[in-house]
Fold:
Amino acid sequence: MPPRSAVALVTAALAAGLAPDPIGTVAAWAEEVRVVAAESSPYPGRWRTDLVPYLAEIMECLSLSHSSREVIFKKSAQVAGTEAGINLFGFVAARSPAPMLIVLPTGDEVRKYVRLKLQPAIDVTPELRRRVREQKNRDEKGSTTTHKSFPGGWCQITGANSSAGLQMVSVRVLILEEVSEYPFDVDGRGDPVDLALKRTTAFSRNRKVFYCSTPGLKGMCRISAKYEASDQRHYFVPCPQCGEMQTLRFEQMRYRPEPPHQVHYVCSGSGCVIEEKHRRAMLAGGEWRAQAPGPERAPGFWINQLYSPFVSWADTVAEHLAAQGDPQREKVFVQQVLGQEYEQKGDAPDWLKLAARREDYPLGRIPPGGLIITAAVDVQADRLEWAVWAWGAAKTSWLIDFGVLEGDTSAEPVWARLTPVLERQYEGPTGRVWPIECAAIDAGYQTQAVYAYVRARGPRVIAVKGMPSHLAPALGTPTRQEVTWPGKRGGVMLWPVGVWSLKAEFYANLRKTIAGPDADGQFAGGTVHLPRDADERYLKQLTAEYLLARERRGFLIQDWVLARGQRNEALDIRVYAAAAAAHLGIDRVTPAGWIKIAAERGQPLAVAQGDLGRLWAPTLDQPSFAKAPEGKPPAAVARARPARPFVHGWRH
Structure:
């Protein structure tokens, strides 16, 4: 039999999508036949809505027989929101076939979603295994990794970072997973959410769109914007003692800060002490209550990690304590645990206040607490500007060297002068020395000159390029670039750097610098330490940018903007030095790992083995340094024993 034409397939899918919906709900289908795979849940086996009773009403609204055309779920991580979408897929594939589209933020997330969530659910649920056709490379009726075919319908899974998967299909059911992580423009074609919604036009009267996501940044968060326009339902649970109905909020938690954390919850009504053992009964007795009811509003749900049966309250407290003082971890805690958008402060710190916090340590030496050394280079037409930063626990940092090499950067001589700068070794407080362990060079200007230099220098020097999106990670996946510099051939890896988030983190840490030490003389973890040699010009460059909010498609898009009349080379260099530190893996070093590194690098015992707080933010009452003689490079300690090099990605 010849294969069916594309027109026939589309016509059949449209007819199936417009057919009357069967009686039944997503929750009832899941309770009847859904099996949870061991690789996707700590509770494998038959689906149990009583384990996550707050999903029951959400799945009721997701049912195709329900009148709502959109359902919004603003949530923390670990509350099974993705599983609600998997159940919707299963119900459509098994009971109410229709064309369907699932969108994830990126292609990588698509592959992870299919491998860890969707395909295991298909494989272990007999009804889905029978209905969803097997993957066959040459059979157009079969399924593929990102296209699941079933009688009367199909499901396409695609990434929001490519417009190709958001075109040329008509779908009735649309799942937008982690929608807050989507870019605001894809391939120059516009907002991927708008592109995806256009795919539902043919089914505008009975479509079902599921927005499911943890929040993003305040003012730039899609899920929060959708939730604010919904009826804003909160899940109220009863106090097991007084019966007061309330939502679970982290500020009502009481705990012992030292592990093991003893945790209980304080009732917002009568102050009753609620133990975690009561949580399951509280969830079972809970109900959703709309905070902004109205017939014109879509059902919107919000919940946080305190409700999750998969995470203990003690673990949530531990996450909170671990995030203190670390801007990136604090952002993760607010978004992923509290289920709220994170408000990014956008004002640049006052350079005059920073000047007042400069410290009396000499350039060219490593102050106590500095354990890992990175450098970065900014390329201009007539000069190379560079700086060297030392890093310690909690990403506390010290500016230990900086300078300018004047010369035409399109010619070899100035690059030859950069080599001895990057080969310098720096003396620590006990006389041991170690080198710059990673240097990042901005390839945004004189790109081929940078590639040629990096290729000749080996793995400790990397080429980087700034990515302005607030969604870009600190250090992304590199791509191979060809070197075409005269007389040079070959390839080099180019590393994308999320400059947006690194600038935000840096400014948050500069505020810790301005705040100064506590009553015990200790600086907060992450504090940026600056020497007296950092003059007015340098400090103004470090604080030259600010966040400017611009409205775009109903969202306030925040961009870093250079203040008029200012230069920002020092800020760019700092950001790329932080990217070099990320390349070495310092984000993954544990407190115990920092202690081990300190011991191996000859830090004073008071720092390496004493009070851990001193390691996190050492003060300068450790052995002092003599000022390096003028005119001599700060590397010069020929008799000192070199420190062991830091291992890329070292994890303890």
The CA atoms of residues 250 and 338 lie 7 Å apart.
